Amino acid sequence: MTKSELISRLAEKTGASKKDIDQVLSALVDIIVDETKAGQSVPLTGLGTFSLAERTARPGRNPKTGEPITIQASKSIKFKPGKAIKDALN
User: String of b and e for 37-53 (b: at least 16 CB within 10 Å)?
Assistant: First the structure.
């Protein structure tokens, strides 16, 4: 499902305009990114929890040459699905 398909489905279900849904969705993503950048987790009851995942630097190999390299430390967003979603899928 693409972002535009999600916006269309949400507009159908809520009766709101696609423009309004797009603004709300963009604002939600911005808030989740800002809060996780600040080290806070963002729990959305019924959906799951977004949190910051920090990866340490580690050794790796260049798949093309086989040469050893160091993979830099990085930050990413981690999502842990909530119980309601897990139960619905199983």
Answer: eeeeebeeeeebebbbe
Give the model confidence (pLDDT) of 37-63 as tens digits.
999 999 999 899 999 999 999 999 999
Domains for the chain: give ranges and CATH numbers.
3-89 (4.10.520.10)
* Residues pairing with 77 in the sheet: 52
Cα gap 76→51, rounded to integer Å:
9
CA gap 11, 69 in Å, rounded: 48
Q: Is the Cα dihedral 8, 10, 14, 17 positive or negative?
A: negative
